[in-house]
């Protein structure tokens, strides 16, 4: 991609985020890949408050169902703070091997629920993210735990 087209694409992304009313419109997202469930990097301008949201798990079901339940719980927690998924700039996802998947983590199942909340037309922002397979979580049947870092400009 030539430099002019790249800069025009980045400018169009910024205008699109601004026009959509996205909460994080003045954040600079680098190397955004439309197919990826995360941003490669996120720059937060000076003057934002930072919120660290503890890890949360969801009840029952497979990895996809637990991810959806976990995200629903986190959405409610963020709302109590006056935040949305558009304010999330970093996520850590911890996955336990699913016995139904031959003892392997269900990364695709987690991403199927993730894509319903991040990188959508209604909520285009994607946080930087890391996902880890862990031996176990505190809840004996938990397959997923997610924690967030979110930012918001003070009013």
Fold and architecture overview:
It contains three helices and six strands; from the N terminus they run αβββαβαββ. The protein has 155 residues and is of the alpha+beta class. The protein has one domain: RutC-like (60s Ribosomal Protein L30, Chain: A), CATH 3.30.1330.40. The chain has a four-stranded mixed β-sheet. A two-stranded antiparallel sheet has the order 1-2. β4, α3 and β5 form a beta-alpha-beta unit. α2 packs parallel to α3. The longest helix is centred in the middle third of the chain and has 18 residues. The N terminus is likely disordered.
Biggest sheet descriptor: 4 strands, mixed
Structural class: alpha+beta
Strand order of the largest sheet: 3-6-4-5
CATH homolog superfamily = RutC-like
Q: How many helices in DSSP terms? A: 3
The oligomeric state is single chain
Can you tell me the CATH architecture?
2-Layer Sandwich
Task: Sum up the structure in keywords.
155 residues, alpha+beta, 60s Ribosomal Protein L30, Chain: A, 4-stranded mixed sheet, two-stranded antiparallel ribbon, 3 helices, 25% strand, disordered N terminus
Secondary structure blueprint with pairings:
Blueprint: H1 3-19, E1 28-30, E2 41-43, E3 49-56, H2 63-80, E4 88-96, H3 107-114, E5 128-134, E6 144-152
Parallel strand pairs: 4-5
Antiparallel strand pairs: 1-2, 3-6, 4-6
Helix pairs in contact: 2-3
Concise overview:
This protein is of the alpha+beta class. It has helices spanning 3-19, 63-80, 107-114; strands spanning 28-30, 41-43, 49-56, 88-96, 128-134, 144-152. A four-stranded mixed sheet has the order 3-6-4-5.
